[in-house]
Amino acid sequence: MLHKIINLTVRDVRFPTSVEQHGSDAMHTDPDYSAAYVVLDTDRGLRGFGLTFTLGKGTEIVVCAVEALAALVVGKSLQEIVSDFRGFYRLLTSDGQMRWLGPEKGVTHLATAAVLNAVWDLWARSEGKDPEQIVSCIDFRYITDVLTEKEAVGETEDQMQKEGYPAYTTSCAWLGYPDQQLKQLCTDALKSGWTKFKVKVGADLEDDIRRCRLIRQMIGPNNTLMIDANQRWDVAEAISWVSRLSEFKPLWIEEPTSPDDILGHAAISKALAPLGIGVATGEQCHNRVMFKQFLQASALQFVQIDSCRLGSVNENLAVLLMAHKFQVPVCPHAGGVGLCELVQHLILFDYICVSASLDSRMCEYVDHLHKHFTSPVVIQDAHYMPPKDPGYSCEMLEASVQKHQYPEGDVWKLHMNK
Ligand SMILES: C[C@H](O)[C@@H](O)CC(=O)C(=O)O
Ligand SMILES: [Mg+2]
């Protein structure tokens, strides 16, 4: 356990997913799935791998922010960190100068996530953990009015090894896919056992009606449909637009408006409840304090944690526990590179140690870029199977990193010369 961290490297790794419109939505029309990829080296040779997800441009800014945090990590031993992980979390998020850039939001928080994801990976590779130890990593400051440490430790049975955790797919219906591709992908997904599908909406109502009709016809009345607008609308517009799509019976509308508008989400939730449509959000919810207020205001019916938007496992645990207290199901966001690999750990923890329920719960799956990881997710019959390798599953193949490093990797040299 006395692994002293002697070096932190961070690299800008980008995949040109926008070329084929993978990952496209109403607000992010040309996403290049990217990561600020962190490696921690220790004096005893053990390494920790972490990342935070970005969309191409701007990854270099996150890389700078990680570099600015490096001095707080390098020189510490793993034992020193995890014996007071809550304190270490606070050290990273409360640095007297750096916190001015956040606090606990935006680029600095994405950087915090990358660093802490690597620390968690290092810790997980070095030993096993129990729920009490994990809860001791959470900074309860600002949320004790709704959740205390005492309430936080729970237990349940583990059926996951046999059945896996239920998943839904977003990969059939990115906004930039033409109808023919959408049909083909949907046919293939149905054959592979998928029963829950998310469709991107929000750019053009007539297109949405056509695409939702197409998908609903293909999946039939009993499979589940979700729609995702990626923050495209104002509040009133969201209500009227989604009402027009209600005939397709979506389970939820995701990110209908600004991710910061808690009361707006509450108004949308209230208006759409009679139509049987819930509101899902979280992939751009900056921190546990925002989630606290979303829950307090009944502004969301599905909590979408994100392994890289929040301050790593530490802060995600706080949100899982608050969601449990408010009895709101957690359905994590995973649309990005490495997010499926990371978030599978969090959702398994939620089931095994917190919620003990699969009711209204499922984890997002996107079928992109897994081949670049040393321990890619395993999906069987539309379920995430528990990862077997030690660690947090976000180590990338070195060859992939080199090839996709921006701007010097071969992929980008080729791309820029076109
Ligand atoms: C830009 C990303 O692909 C985004 O569209 C992902 C997302 O909203 C989701 O997976 O949900
Ligand atoms: Mg989304």
From TrEMBL:
SMART domains: MR_MLE
Its EC number(s): 4.2.1.68
Organism: Lates calcarifer (Barramundi)
Domain of life: Eukaryota
Protein name, as recorded: Mitochondrial enolase superfamily member 1
Biological process, per Gene Ontology: amino acid catabolic process; carbohydrate catabolic process
Domain Mandelate racemase/muconate lactonizing enzyme C-terminal: 179-275
CDD domains to which the protein is assigned, alphabetical: rTSbeta_L-fuconate_dehydratase
Family stated for the protein in its record: Belongs to the mandelate racemase/muconate lactonizing enzyme family. ENOSF1 subfamily.
Keywords from the named record: Lyase, Magnesium, Metal-binding
Pfam families: MR_MLE_C, MR_MLE_N
